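Summary for the steering committee. The consortium agreed at its last meeting that each partner would contribute one worked example illustrating the joint modelling workflow. Our contribution is presented below. We chose a case with several input lines so that the handling of multiple components could be demonstrated. No manual editing was applied between input and output; the record is shown as generated.
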Amino acid sequence: MSEALAIRSEILKLARLLERDPESLSYLEQVPAEDIRAVRELATERMFDAGGGVLSRIALASKVIPTGLMATLTQRTFGPMLTARIAGEVDPSRAVEVAAKLPPPFLADVAIELDPRRAETMIGQLPATLLSVVTAELIRREEYVTLGRFVGHITPDALRAALDSMTDSDLLAVAFVLEEKSALDGLVDELGLERLEGVLAAAAAEGQWPEALDLFANLSGERAELIARATAGAEAQVLESLFAAADEHELWGVLLPMLELLGPEDRARMEARLPEAVQPSASEVRSKP
Amino acid sequence: MADDALNGLERELHGPVPPGLLRLHDSELRDLATAIAAERHRQAAALAAAGDQALGQLPRMIRIPLKKLLG
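What follows is the complete predicted structure of the assembly.
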């Protein structure tokens, strides 16, 4: 994966945690992605360590409160942040019952404050229909980093429902900031070739080639080939836009390995359109054993 | 001064600063430490306020279910 893209992704995630404009953290562009991630994880631990005693007492008390009353209390008294912190301490099936009684905008507020790693069992039990509605609300708010935190923790059914709530452009934005990039394979498995072609068209139309190339760079085996084939089959103007973006963002190192995955016809078609300046690099890729 | 900025961030992270951040200027280290502290304080204040309010209301609101539970 391109380190520059990984750094950009990590700055977006840290900026979301700190409620800062990503541009204001641009000085982190010189810091390796893994170190920015380490800072975010340390800061998250620090923030989530607060309030342990109160959280446990409320979680304990919640055992004897009827679900309806608990939902009312949750929304009117606890608020999103406290709810997010106790979500991991309450019995998961009970938390799911309460969640089902809460309005999607409130659940979206909770999702923003939640660390999915601390409430994994509960998240895994949430119905796909509920997650789909909450996803739509988070998409409406452009909460891509929040969604990216959840993808590795939801069931395939829920992932399918979530993907249906996203445009191709949204999908690229979420994939770019995915917390666990290993979840990208599962995500692409749900898409199929037709949707991938739409994703590439969105990348061209919305200037999201860095995000699309990051998606390609993080996929394994057959899925990377699928993206490569969809790219090679794209219209000429889409390819021109891709090559212009590779130049602008210095992403040839991510793009050229795509040629290795193509059959002779597709490869020749791509190579014929490559700018002259990168033709020698493309030949090097071709001559690799 | 450099040590102050670094120590400030270490205190905020409760651990050693990852090595890549040693490339940053003091002002940048301080900005990062300040941003983390500000968000931590915001969250702690919101949690404390919600926790106090919730615990203040719980005894009254769980009285009936508690009675049922205890017979």
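Chain B touches chain A through 38 residues (CB under 8 Å). The mean pLDDT of chain B is 81.
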